[in-house]
């Protein structure tokens, strides 16, 4: 192996080692919260952080796979499988926990909110994905991006119902946003993973592309 490739491999392995340590600590935190806490918000935040860190780990695994020699490939695959299996176990447990806690607490919150607010919108949306915790059921208008002139109306309603809703965190807001954009608008933000940081990016992308006169 060339010296440059060897140096890159060692650097990438070191980065992965640190990321694996973070994933392990995140998993331990998640396990502790599931076993000892009744606060689904904390579990949800740890759950999203774990997904984000595992995505980083997967990217590093791919980089290393392209750099190692064939003799090291078997050990590499076995080690990766160990982390992947543990991630899947705790991802599933976190989703089940959040689902069980949310089924009552979030429904009550949604009912209280809807008693005070009338949303004159078009389509009904509840959970945006079977992989995400159930969110309060809201009635939201969809936006395809085909008719740019309809964006101001769409955004005004989404802003009132979701964007300025203090009871929702940015991950929840992003979940709702992803559920109501279709066609060109959906393609514009498809590459953004479901994180609080990416919600602001998604809003800016949509406003820059469809909201300008």
UniProtKB/TrEMBL annotation:
InterPro entries: DUF1759. It holds the Pfam family DUF1759. It comes from the Eukaryota. This is Uncharacterized protein. It comes from Araneus ventricosus.
């Amino acid at each position: 192996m060339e010296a440059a490739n060897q140096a890159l491999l060692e650097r990438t392995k070191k980065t992965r080692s640190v990321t694996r340590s973070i994933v392990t600590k995140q998993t331990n935190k998640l396990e502790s919260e599931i076993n000892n806490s009744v606060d689904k918000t904390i579990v949800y935040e740890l759950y999203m952080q774990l997904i984000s860190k595992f995505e980083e780990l997967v990217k590093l695994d791919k980089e290393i796979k392209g750099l190692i020699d064939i003799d090291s490939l078997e050990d590499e695959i076995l080690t990766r499988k160990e982390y992947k299996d543990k991630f899947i176990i705790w991802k599933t447990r976190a989703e089940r926990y959040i689902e069980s806690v949310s089924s009552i607490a979030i429904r009550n919150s949604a009912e209280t909110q809807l008693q005070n607010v009338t949303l004159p919108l078009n389509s009904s949306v509840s959970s945006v994905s079977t992989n995400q915790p159930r969110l309060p059921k809201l009635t939201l208008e969809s936006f395809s991006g085909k008719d740019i002139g309809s964006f101001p109306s769409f955004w005004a309603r989404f802003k009132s119902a979701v964007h300025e809703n203090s009871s929702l965190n940015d991950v929840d807001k992003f979940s709702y946003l992803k559920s109501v954009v279709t066609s060109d608008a959906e393609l514009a933000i498809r590459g953004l993973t479901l994180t609080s940081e990416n919600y602001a990016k998604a809003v800016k992308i949509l406003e820059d592309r469809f909201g300008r006169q």
